[in-house]
Protein 1
Amino acid sequence: MTLERVTKRFDRTLAVDDLSFSVAPATVFGFLGGNGAGKTTSLRMVLDIIRPTSGRIEVLGRAPGRANAPEIGFLPEERGLYRQMTALDTIAYFGRLKGMTASDAKREGSALLDRFGLAANSKMTVDKLSKGMAQKVQLATALVNRPRLLILDEPFSGLDPVNQGLLEEEIRHMSAAGSTVVFSTHVMQHAERLCDRLLLLARGRKKFEGTLDEARAELPARIAVVSRRSPSEIQGVENAEDRGEAGDGWRRWNVRLAPGIAPGDVLQRCTAEQFPLRQFEQLHSSLHDVFVHIVGSAEASK
Amino acid sequence: MKNILLVAAREFRQIAGMRSFWLTLIIIPLSMVIGGLAPQLIDKDEAARVMVIDRTGGSEAAAIAQRIELDRDRDMLGELSRYVQRHHLEDAGRGALWSQHDRWYSDADVAQFTASGGVNAAKAKIARVKAKDTPEFKASKPDYQIVPVPASLQGVPEAGLDAALKPVLKPEGKDAKPVDYVILVPASFGQSPLVRLWANRQPSPLFVSKVQDVLTRDLRARFLSAQGVPDAAARSATTIAPAIAISTPPPGGGAREAMLVRSILPLAAAYLLMISLMLSGSWMLQGTVEERSNKLLETVLACVSPEELMYGKLLGTAGVGLFMIAVWIGCGVFAAYATHGAIADLIRPALDPLSSPGTIIAMLYFFVVGYVSIAILFLAIGAMSDSMRDAQGYLMPVLLLIILPISILMQAVLGGNSGGVLMEVLTWVPIWTPFGVLARLGLGIPTWEVIGTGIVLGVYTVVLVALMGRLFRASLLAQGQRPNLKQMVSRIRTVEG
């Protein structure tokens, strides 16, 4: 999936601004950003639900369009089902809209319901299913055609913990089977656990694209030490925050290193300068920290 | 095309799964059956009992009884004629009065019929030619029955009759049969025209006029006799009447009744179009609103284009409408069959328009195109509304715009008015054209007008589908409050891609 200099404008609102990125086959790609960052608009353009104002999009080697539907699975952020249709008929209907035969769609639908523990509920109408069951049926409508490209828009929002786990499992399952998974989210923990590559969007513009490690490298390294003196005198330390007494004259410090300085460099200097240390711990930045650092706290809180 | 059919099939199944759909489907034929049975249920089944107290000697009572008998025989002759016509049994009695249809039977005709053996003789002749499965002729029950005057009333003076007749008109016993009419012809009748009538309910005008006619003739005969005219001449003078030869014009030839009969089918088509449109359109609207409010559209639009979704919905709804009409027509055919063709005979003249292929094509064209042109409005309303409450805001003005002028148009056609400025305007404004043309087809509408309005309607529908298609596409995923007219125009002008 490739987007090249894609822009989408609604009247006076610039929803997506000159966005370019590529998703390699068989990767899990996270599309991160706050509300209004342009994630849903970008995904809708990929699906040809709306068209870009300018730029070029390529999906599975073709232009966006319904011809791609048989190879795409899509779970939108705002999900619904036909209340009077049975669970199995609903899945089979979407399977047929994606080009499956009636028998294949029914068979695959039954298999999915079985896998999700809903085999006994397959003939129940949607309005009689619990919310959690309905969420599973929604997921099944996206998976029924065994898509090569699975697009999930904020897939974890509104899911109960059990279904969140189920969805994570399905994403891993699809990826292992060779499918490409693109999902948007503003919950960074899911992205950290699942994504091979990430893209950070803010106000429709790309702010970052790369792996999780590359994202973390965007932030200065941090260490936690227990020492008698402030470590700010060590070369390469940008800032040391006193976190209080650690007993027997020792104190805890949160230390932020200068850009380009690795924790190992500081440890080596401490040893060389005989700076007494009782504890030295490298702190890993969370994706949330990276996100806040890159897009700013105001954007991140949206 | 496959996606359109899939969407249409789902739409059809969804509507067919609604209880209201089946209720509506049943209610209309059921109401027609009830409407047909109601008069029979309301009508009193028994003959009205008539008592004539004749104090002139008995000649007036005999004249009234004779007249009632004559009219009864006339009714039976008419019924027999219709039976013979319905079952094509004219061969049973070529030249017989009952094998001559659509004519008025004079007193002399009825007398001739009775003299030649009446109903029984006719039935014997018919039995020789009728097929085994042809039902027997059954005459309807008589309207009146003459009952004798009880001895207890014979000597009661006129002044005492009011009280004496009370138990006769409203007897107290459970099984006692009341007398419906009591007529007193006083001994002074002739010198005085006064006759009294007691009735146990509002007297039937037909009965009163029957009695009045008999007694008027007698009064005139008495008057002429008093003027010196011989009795025989005076009696004959009262029966002198013109022999009116009645000619029924060919259907559509100008008589209002004939025109109305011919208009039944086109008018029914217009009504069916309106009813099925309003019902299936509102169900489609409900379905579209549900898709929006249930956040279903994005999932659907990832698989089908907005155009496929729109055409699928239109097709599914049209299928529902046509299915309803087919069921109703099927009920009509079943009723015609079940009543041994009695209903079919009644509506046969109404099917006259179907003898012309041009009329059939015109009816189908205006029905189908009319359906699409209005259903697309319902669809666009559904696409713009997040709830049925929102939809009602748009729907009411549209419904009023469609229904009010149509009601006027239908009334005009029922009144036999096929021309006039208003009718022309309603026929040429595309939103009303299907109803206007369908309603006027039976009364006669110039061919050039049918073709002209057909072209205008076709162009209007194509443009409307294109514009509403844009509005539908632009509104599907639009958020926020329902759009005003300016926003709607803006959406229509927006061309995606």
Note: The interface with chain B takes residues 44, 47, 49-51, 66, 69, 72, 74-76, 78-85, 93-94, 96-98, 138, 141 of chain A (CB under 8 Å).
Protein 2
Amino acid sequence: MHSIPQSHKEITSLIKSGELTCESLVRQYLDNIHEQEDLNVFISLFDSEAVERAREIDKKLKDGKAGKLAGAVFSVKDVISVKDKLLTCGSKFLSNFESLYNATAVERLLNEDAIIIGKVNCDEFAMGSSNENSYFGHVKNPVDKTRVPGGSSGASAVSVAANMCLMSLGSETGGSIRQPASFCGITGLKATYGRISRFGLVAFASSFDSIGIFGNNNYDIGLALEVISGFDERDSTSSDHKVLNYASESEKNFDPKEIRIGYVKEYFEEGLSDAVRTGINEKLDVLRKKGFTVKEISLPSSKYVIQTYYILTCAEASSNLSRFDGVRYGVRSENSDAVEEMYVNSRSEGFGEEVKRRIMLGTYVLSAGYYDAYYRKGQKARTLIRKDFEKAFNEVDYIISPTTPTTAFKLGEKIEDPLAMYLNDIYTVSANLAGIPAISVPAGQDKDGLPFGLQIMGKKFDEAGLLKMANEIN
Amino acid sequence: MAVSLKDVDKIATLAKLKFSGTEKEKLQKDLNKILEYIDHLNELDLEGVEPLENINETENVLRKDEVYTWLTTEEALKNAPSKTGKFFKVPKVLDK
């Protein structure tokens, strides 16, 4: 594998000094992609097109006309639209579907001269925590190929960790960026709900979904974030909250005396592995030594986040995925003489097991007689969870926790036990339930060399603060 | 509130999905296990708690009601599994 510059700053300076061109950089990434095909990262690769675009950007750079992401090469999770390219969502159902337009986030990246090198694998419709639920096969963790990379944006994390690109766009509903970032030893940001337009992101659970960013460092993530954030009239849930210069913000320092950090009592109880517990506690000690106030806080509703999350996201998914009927797009079943039969057969043949399980659970909790017992109850529990966070953020400025209870588990280890798989998201789903921003930063390795992440959660729209706090950890 | 095989059939009909006998049995087992875990929510006192229906607190985001070209008919039909002229084509809807 080629050694490749790990930051946009380094790339920019190498280009400036004439030691690197965008074209040679793209070719190095392509070599790395081809040498590591066994990781099963890409669903579609834009090889010659990316090289051609790199040449154009090299010319723009020479003419001094390049955008702020010139030299930044991205992969894009295959649930996000790139015009005229396949958008499979890791599903058989959409295995032949081509996007008719760019997602807003993609369009904004391209406008600043980013290069997209291809679309990457993921759990089907972003449902999963191990990237084992893809029609296109499972993805392997580059640190240990017998282990999962995490999910659902597993291949996004791998593409960055294995030097196949500089950054990746992924998506989150309950931790699908932070968990794979943790398992692969890189940084992953989920912004505040509404910070980044969801236009062009295939919907899983609309009140939870957000696009996010994988990278090697906080500055790069800040740079991508400032480009893709902001109101978009094509997504009415996107926010017009002011977009800051997150990259330069990320490099400013805190006055530790003014910052209070909370760690959640309930997160350090049962289920947390010793290696991760020790690693996170060491980081908390570092922060104490720097002069930050570090105190224990309580989120009493923590015990109920997974339950609430699965009721609400499956309900929303069952509704969102009802559009896949085989009429207007997707793979239509050939075994049907009548339209009703065609719907049922297309869906049953096109969706994988986990997607069907969640549609069934969602349909159940929304059905007559169970709506109040489950769906309504879930919405009320979500209110309590959000209130817990509001209360906590009166006491502290940031909340620090492990990202995941353990390091990456073995391929196949949890795939037969959906509940065990769901419990992997115990520390991450809360940020999506409350709509707040959260980031996972590399925090250490266990005795086998497997990485784990530290999660920082912040107040709504305090992405700049999250990135600054992340710098205090690194 | 255990899910029976009959319930699995009913939910499958609502969700427009179909399953084989073994798939149904596995689904029944999985759903019951997940719902048993979900039932821990009954420990919460939710009396008087308002349901959270809108996560980002914005209301009535309006845009101008203007006609503009988004996709052409040809583009909209690009991914159709079956089409005829300007239309999506489906198997027969009514039995004669």
Note: Chain B has a mean pLDDT of 93.
